[in-house]
Amino acid sequence: MKAVIPAAGLGTRFLPVTKAQPKEMLPVYNKPTIQYVVEEAVSSGIDDILIITGKGKRSIEDHFDRSFELEYFLQKSGKTDYLKEIESISEMADIYYVRQKKQKGLGDAISCAKKHIDGEPFAVLLGDTIAQSKIPCTKQLMNVYDKYESTVIAIEEVPDERVERYGIIKGSKIDNSLYRIEDLVEKPKLEEAPSNLGIIGRYVLSHEIFDYIDEVPPGVGGEIQLTDALRLFKESYGCIFNGKLHDIGNTVDWLKSSIEIALEHEDVKEELKEYLMEILK
Ligand code: UTP
């Protein structure tokens, strides 16, 4: 299976930071966000990844490319640990790029992948969301796809105050973690939301999605919404994500994620904890 990572958005909620750099390249502790996303695809067994980029996103390509000058310098100066790490980033997977010419929404970004995907089911991982779990989120979805051979979307229960930020599903429960989807709505008002099950940015889609995206008119925010195209599937599933999600699309969530992920690193954990306790006194 191939993976598509849309990373062409303008990141307006993160301005002015994103004026000249992609939000997908913002570091979360010691790695850029999109590296976590690529690592999730790779640990799900995917080695063919298409990143949807756009204007001002060159640093994403540079990050996953080789850097001979840097490698030479690290070798010369005996910094072999760094050298290994730098080399491994460019060897993780076969990464391809296509540019979304105009930022017309997530649905439009996915449609840029049509030629590369060539009729197969494929995974989609949003470039600004980190999903941490024992079994990678994408792998959890691939397992469901193998069983039902239908589109499957990762979902999570979201608190009331966040419902308006998500695509929300209406579904009937099949088992503890699986829903058959009956309807979907993008960013509903809380009182109009059919449930509190939000779409978190991981999908395994059948290729019919490309036809459906062509059919839907612009939706919320005047954008071509992937959620609107997903409504056209006769059969699709929502799978409750078993793990921890970090959405870094806005400044506060990014900051929280950076702290949480830094606290997972033993070498800085105690120092950071002491510091946080000190400043919160
Ligand atoms: P978001 O809506 O969160 O990203 O899209 P955005 O548009 O960059 O952010 P704001 O709303 O302006 O602050 C989720 C993912 O889809 C990609 C983004 O790069 C992000 O990773 N995306 C979004 C595209 O690739 N193209 C688009 O036209 C829109």
Report what the structure shows.
The protein has 281 residues and is α/β, with parallel strands linked by helices. It has one domain (2-247): Spore Coat Polysaccharide Biosynthesis Protein SpsA, Chain A. Helix content is 36%, strand content 26%. The chain is built from 11 helices and 13 strands. The chain has helices at 33-43, 58-64, 68-76, 80-91, 106-111, 114-117, 137-148, 209-215, 226-230, 251-262, 266-280, and strands spanning 2-6, 27-28, 31-32, 48-53, 94-99, 122-125, 129-132, 151-157, 167-175, 178-186, 197-205, 236-240, 244-247. The strands form 3 sheets. A 9-stranded mixed β-sheet has the order 5-4-1-6-11-8-12-10-9. Strands 2-3 form a two-stranded antiparallel sheet. A two-stranded antiparallel ribbon has the order 7-13. Helix 3 runs antiparallel to helix 4 (80-91). The protein is globular. It starts with a strand and ends with a helix. The mean pLDDT is 95. The structure holds uridine 5'-triphosphate (UTP). Uridine 5'-triphosphate (UTP) is lined by residues 6-13, 24, 52, 100, 103-106, 108-109, 126-128, 249. Uridine 5'-triphosphate binds next to helix 5.
Tell me briefly what this model is.
The chain has 281 residues and is of the alpha/beta class.
